[in-house]
Amino acid sequence: MTEGTGPGGGPYGGAPPGGGGSYGSGPHQGGGPHGGGPYGGGPYGNGPYGGGPQGGGPYGGGPYGWGGWPPPPPKPGVIPLGPLGLSDILTGAFATFGRYWKQLFGVTVVVYAVAALVVAAAAGLAYAVAGDDLRHLFDLPSGQDPDWDDLRPLVIPFAGLCAFAVLVLLAATAMVQAVCPAIAQEAVLGRRTTFGAVWRRALARVPAVLGTVVLIGLIGLLPVALLLLGIGATVLTYAVAEAQWAGWLMALGFLGALAAAPLATWLWIRYSLASTVAVTETQGATASLRRSAALVRGSWWRIFGICLLVYLMAGFAGMVIRQLLTLLGLLPGMFTAGDIGPEASPGAIALGIGGYLLLALIGQLVSQVITTTFPQLVLALLYVDQRIRKENLAPALVEAASAPAPS
């Protein structure tokens, strides 16, 4: 596996010449002062799998002290630098969210706001192209159904707008998913970071992360595609031939979706660390997928259980926040002096509706930030945990945490 050359060299992401990063070094990257891995002999430090000096424990020379009990792992940041349990991962994710919320919220708000403006501009352009045809469609006489000649001029602009909106949303999602590992790296080492540093680091890795998002998304859409294919075939067959057996096609599509769901879930977990690898190790999309598969191997059920719990937690928290802010906007007198009655002025009505929509928008935005970023922070910590367990990354992290922060 080759070393990337992306930004954020040194102990993060790409490695400087002659060395590797505490995160960025892959399992076969050389460089260190002793001709082996980035921090000594062997592929990951001294010994065949890294660690401290020969004959010592994982955090220093000599056998474990304290009557044979190992010392607690150091904790320069949000997690102890040792194999992590569920509580360590959740606590670390919450701590990262609390310490770096400005960067998380700032980047997410900017990304989704820009995406919304771009899609709105594209919608305005589509309306400028097909506005006359759309108005003609609504001006049809009462009871007259539109025919193909009425709909045809709208197909290309509408389809193009939908495709463009999907691409913009995928790019925004990739940017947010690139931000979380970049922040988690600093959180693990206990270092401060800024909005600009996070933005630059994440932006440089967006193409690779976008590739992983698209590939993993296609895997997740497989059961849905089979189900929609069965429904579409059923409708088309019945519309053309009115065959009595058309319903069997829908049943086959449903059974195909059920059969594909376990495979899609297995592949999704297998490649769940790919976005983190793309940012942390500056790998390309396909290399990140292979690296994720190697890290997940042997721990699939554990990672599946943690991911299921975390996505349920994030979804529930986002739903509660969204509903609370929406209900808050419905309270009488929230944005006006009293209830909006039948004699209310247009200004009072506009203020009440505008305030409600504003709270609903804020609730949706906060919910989006939580449901998007919190699971990605957990996946970034799972990546660190897997490398600690499989590759003994802890000594390299201890060394990086004690080194001066890069400018």
Automatic annotation (TrEMBL):
Keyword match Metal-binding: no
The organism's place on the tree of life at top rank: Bacteria
Segments passing through the bilayer: 78-97, 104-130, 154-176, 209-239, 245-269, 300-321
Keyword tags: Membrane, Transmembrane, Transmembrane helix
The UniProt record lists the keyword Transmembrane helix: yes
Disordered: annotated segments: 1-56
Protein name: Glycerophosphoryl diester phosphodiesterase membrane domain-containing protein
Lineage: Bacteria, Bacillati, Actinomycetota, Actinomycetes, Kitasatosporales
